[in-house]
Amino acid sequence: MSTRVNDNPAPKLHKADGSAIRVLVVDDEPGLTDLLSMALRYEGWDVRSAGDGQQALRIAREFRPDAIVLDIMLPDIDGLQVLQRVRADGHETPVLFLTAKDSLDDRIAGLTAGGDDYVTKPFSLEEVVARLRGLIRRSTLAVADSSDPRITIGDLTLDEDSYEVFRAGEQIELTATEFELLRFLMRNPRRVLSKAQILDRVWSYDFGGRSSVVEIYISYLRKKIDAGRDPMIHTVRGAGYMLKTAK
C-alpha cells in the first residue's frame, strides 16, 4: 500500500438531533466487514454488520440504518434481492453497492434496482467513507460539525456539502471522480502529490499501477479549472502534481 498523505479531515457528520448516523455493512468476508466497520466507527457512526442477506434484512428492520454498504455477491440471497426487500419494506435508505472488479453488469443492475452508488473491489477505505458521506449528505439526513464546508484556494472554491466548484465566481461542472481529485489537491495546497498517493486516495491502492489514469484526470481537471486562466494545477517533473494559487 502506498504512503498516505495526512489531508485535513472532513467535518464529522451527525443527525440534526445530534445522534449518530447508523450504517449497516453487509459482506460475507469477515475481515473486510471488520475493516469497514472500524473505518466507519472512526467517523463517529453507529455501525452494525451482517454476513448474509437474510441476516442483513433482520438487522435492517430492527436497526433502521441511515445508509447501507451492500455486497452484491452474498451466500444466500444476493444484494439486489436484499435491496428490493428493503425497498418493499418502505425504506428509502441510501445504498452503496460493493461489486466485483470490472463487473459492469453488476454495477448497472445495482443502480437500476435502486442502488445509489457503487465501488468496485478492491477499494480503499477512504473511498467508501467518501462515497457514503456524499450519499448521506444528499439524503439530507445529516449535518456537519463545521459551519463552513468550503475549501478556498485563491479564486477557486470547492463546497463539500453541495458538491459545487467555482473559479472566479464561475461555476465549474465536475464528475464525481474529478471532484474527489480536486478536493484531494485542494486539501494539500502547495504540496507535491505523487501519482501513487493520488491513486491511493481517489481510486484504490490496488488499482493495478495504472498511473496513466492520473494523467488523464489531471488533464480533464486542467481543461475545466485552468482553461483560459492562470494555471493552478502544476506538474512537478518526476515527482507528481501540486495545486497552488495562480500568480
Any overview of this molecule?
With 247 residues, the chain is of the alpha/beta class. Helices cover 37% and strands 21% of the residues. The protein has eight helices and 13 strands. The strands form four sheets. A five-stranded parallel beta sheet has the order 3-2-4-5-6, sandwiched between helices. Strands 8-9-10-11 form a four-stranded antiparallel beta sheet, with helices on one face. Helix 2 runs parallel beside helix 3 (79-88). It is elongated and about 60 Å long. The two termini are 36 Å apart. Residues 1-8, 142-146 and 205-209 have low confidence and may be disordered.
Query: What percentage of the residues does DSSP assign to strands (E)?
Result: 15-25%
Main pleated sheet: 5 strands, parallel
Question: What's the assembly state of these chains?
Answer: single chain
Distance between the termini: 36 Å
Mean pLDDT equals 81
| SS-based class | alpha/beta
- Poorly predicted sequence stretches spanning 5 or more consecutive residues: 1-8, 142-146, 205-209
Task: Strand order, main sheet: write it out.
Answer: 3-2-4-5-6
Write down the secondary-structure element order.
EEHEHEHEHEHEEEEEHHHEE
Overall number of strands = 13
Approximate shape = elongated
